[in-house]
Amino acid sequence: MTVIHSARLITSGTVTENAWVRFDGDRVAEIGSGTGWPADADVVDAAGGVLTPGFVDIHVHGGGTASYDGDAAQIAHAMATHHEHGTTRTALSLVTATQADLRSQLALIADLASDNPLILGSHLEGPYLDHAHKGAHAPELLADPQAEDIDALLAAARGTLVQITLAPEKPGAMAAIPRLVEAGVAVAVGHTAAGYEQALAAFDAGASLLTHAFNAMDGIYHRAPGPIGAALARDHVTLELINDGVHVHPAVAKMLWDAAPGRVALITDAMAAAGAADGDYVLGSLAVRVERGTARLVEGGAIAGSTLTLDAALRQSVDVCGVSLVDAVDALTRVPADAIGRRDIGRLEAGAAADAVLLTEQLEVTRVWGAGNALFTRAA
């Protein structure tokens, strides 16, 4: 057992002062406040620090120089990098590749997820994307969704495909949405030329996410609200946000929070350079150069993911955008967890997963637990 006490606990939109949490194995056994926690445990004094559920990243491609389209060792290394920044559960995102390569990687991730509960499964960001809004995806590998290909991807993932991004205007996309939803996949509208009505039709067909709002899609115009306007019009839709100050201006990010309370999910969309140095990298099959922490394609200069970590997204949201700490924590935890149907994570309550992050008042990560195990402790 582990007991964390004397914490300012923030979870599911509530704040409890002088709180304590007891883990028993990989689950939260009980929560209280004041004194009276069990003494026969590994006791951690939070000393008034901020305790939150473990951060949940449902859109991330890698970190620490490694990518999630790599082998098992690369995947483990990238996850360890993000553990140091508070991320405890991860959907491993894959960029556009050949059908054969995607099936192979989905199968590998399914194997790893069967042994590692911190891997939520896979997220396919492509290949069913619009050419004009492709971002950092190889144009020659973009495709229209075919029923046989969708079935083959689902078979390879063996129930571990948790999210897929597609452009609903692609031939076959609208037919694919209910098939994917039936299989338990959260469908996201993104990298799209769809207008308001087409995006709205996708959400009404079962799509429930908007991939990195404002990026790789048309923005909101007063006579053409576009996919962002459609997402705001449907209460079941969660809007991803890369809040690094580069992808979306802080004022616009705050507008999104205000327009969709409780529906913004902070993501990193991080590539291999997250937690690593500037330099030359590869995203999928495309050459990327990172300068001053911003990743761009060598050819064309499009933004190529980010170097963001979720603790930095938390500080950006609170310190720069003016979002309340309670709302920002929710966007790192409960909201993304619920977006993929995982109501056992993203909150600290009895019976939930024993995932937690301890932060200083300045929101710097000091300790991280995942499935009841210590994942990171900052050196004194």
Automatic annotation (TrEMBL):
EC number of the protein: 3.5.1.25
Keyword Hydrolase in record: yes
Domain Amidohydrolase-related: 50-373
Enzyme class: hydrolase
Superkingdom of this protein's organism: Bacteria
Keyword Iron: no
GO molecular function terms attached to this record: metal ion binding; N-acetylglucosamine-6-phosphate deacetylase activity
Cofactor: a divalent metal cation
Binding site for substrate: 136, 215-216, 223, 247, 303-305
Residues that bind Zn(2+): 125, 191, 212
Catalytic residues, chain numbering: 269
Co-factor binding comment: Binds 1 divalent metal cation per subunit.
InterPro entries: Amidohydro-rel, GlcNAc_6-P_deAcase, Metal-dep_hydrolase_composite, Metal_Hydrolase
Residues annotated as transmembrane: none
Family: Belongs to the metallo-dependent hydrolases superfamily. NagA family.
Protein name as catalogued: N-acetylglucosamine-6-phosphate deacetylase
Species name: Microbacterium sorbitolivorans
Gene: nagA
